Amino acid sequence: MTDVLIIGWGKGGKTLAGTLARAGRSVTLVEQSSAMYGGACINVACIPTKILVHDSQVPHGTDYDATVFAAAVDRRDTLTAAMRAKNYDMLDTVDGVTLIDGTARFVDASTVEVATADGATRISAETIIINTGATPTPLDLPGADGPRVHDSESIQHVDPLPKRLLVVGDGPIGLEFASMFAGFGSSVRVLSRHDRLLARDDEDVAQVLTDVLTDAGVEIVTGAAARAFTDTGTEVTVTAEIGGETREFAADAVLLATGRSPNTADLDLAAAGVDVDDRGAVVVDDRLRTSAPGVYAIGDVHGGPQFTYLSLDDNRILEDLLLGAGDRRVSDRVAVPTTTFVTPPLARVGLSETQARERGLDVIVASTMVRDIPTLPRPKIVNNPAGIIKVVVDASSKQILGATLFCVDSQEVVNLVALAMRHGITAPELASSIFTHPSTSEMFNGVLAGI
Ligand SMILES: Cc1cc2nc3c(=O)[nH]c(=O)nc-3n(C[C@H](O)[C@H](O)[C@H](O)COP(=O)(O)OP(=O)(O)OC[C@H]3O[C@@H](n4cnc5c(N)ncnc54)[C@H](O)[C@@H]3O)c2cc1C
Ligand SMILES: NC(=O)c1ccc[n+]([C@@H]2O[C@H](COP(=O)([O-])OP(=O)(O)OC[C@H]3O[C@@H](n4cnc5c(N)ncnc54)[C@H](O)[C@@H]3O)[C@@H](O)[C@H]2O)c1
């Protein structure tokens, strides 16, 4: 018996485990893989990919050089191994936390059976938190399980660096890897099902993104649906349907980046009375409670937007529910920023111009190409003045409704805009703020001037 059982070592779960144990609860955390201590973010997702993105942009000439990629993979492996060990220690040293290596499945709403190397063991708990994350959705196409067809995890160790990489899918994973492999010198082709990149976003931003990726060596093939993968023994041929016609592309490796599905299939959630939706995501209410009393779900597994910082924020909601007043809710979140780590990074928060106009809002849109902002030297200093800045402002209140920042450092600057939106700082106030110089934040002095 334990007070709290956490299934899966995700961002939210590991944070909550330490907090609840320090508050006097006995906590048991079950993780199915020793290679995943610390969860997806530090082992296979955010951190390792950003190491590779970083190293892909260190100047090494434009030619294909497999040794540069191999060195980056070594650095990735060293850093993630150190973080994994640190994450293990951070919980192992907390009194009240028990760590178990094993795979959990429900017996009922307060009992879980864990398959371990030493056999099955049952654990009962008053409170059970599901934090099992998501994994790449398998693509049900002929040859999709072939030796040269990868998902976002296996492609990080592809050997050697592919001379020709074909990416299926144009979401954040597809675009980040396309930009990164182009940086390492691969010739990259992205198959997008849509008419253009960022299909639901502003067309001008999509065009600038397409131009930047094209300049970097990425070919975007739009309106293209992959149909089959044929391994010839030396390369893979991808058959795609484009505008009613069939085309074939040869590649040395393929990356499938067509979404991630919640890890619920093996949990036997029905035994606990935990409802899932038609995508297999755990259904939760505004405070992350499932349909079974005492059972909660946090992170990617409940089917919301998949970001590490939202799993972390889920942890805050449960901390408040289990230790505090229980006031905090998912719907309290406003101005949640996102960044897709192409180069330069593409960060967004709030409404795009398209979304604002679709809602019939009276808006002013400040829009400028980065290279045309005379008071913004930082992108030129770091030798990447590409991109576009758009800020959507309510015409009467001058409140900021949203921003798209496609420029160097945007993964940092977008947090400033999000903070301004959350705290009602208006566009004129941001425009006349004092910023360090030279910095990327000082873009607002220029972009928002006169609003
Ligand atoms: C390539 C890539 C890049 C990404 N980049 C970013 C980024 O830059 N920024 C960002 O914010 N987000 C990024 N994400 C998304 C981010 O990684 C996820 O949103 C985040 O890791 C989700 O964490 P989580 O708390 O849901 O659980 P996870 O970290 O996914 O942890 C779930 C854990 O549960 C374990 N588990 C599963 N089933 C069981 C079971 N039955 N028993 C025991 N253990 C089990 C798993 O082994 C895993 O360790 C990226 C994702 C990918 C794939
Ligand atoms: N920087 C970040 O914060 C970051 C980075 C990577 C991933 N993530 C998270 O990981 C999650 C998964 O990312 P993703 O890019 O795999 O998924 P996604 O769902 O965001 O995008 C998948 C893309 O693949 C396309 N697609 C789907 N099925 C297809 C098919 N059969 N053929 C061709 N195209 C198809 C979709 O149209 C979509 O554009 C995202 O929700 C994202 O939030 C975040």
Automatic annotation (TrEMBL):
Residues 336-445 form the Pyridine nucleotide-disulphide oxidoreductase dimerisation domain. Keywords: FAD, Flavoprotein. InterPro entries: FAD/NAD-bd_sf (IPR036188), FAD/NAD-binding_dom (IPR023753), FAD/NAD-linked_Rdtase_dimer_sf (IPR016156), Pyr_nuc-diS_OxRdtase (IPR001100), Pyr_nucl-diS_OxRdtase_dimer (IPR004099). Its cofactor is FAD. Pfam families: Pyr_redox_2, Pyr_redox_dim. The keyword Flavoprotein applies. Belongs to the class-I pyridine nucleotide-disulfide oxidoreductase family. This is FAD-dependent oxidoreductase. It comes from Gordonia hydrophobica.
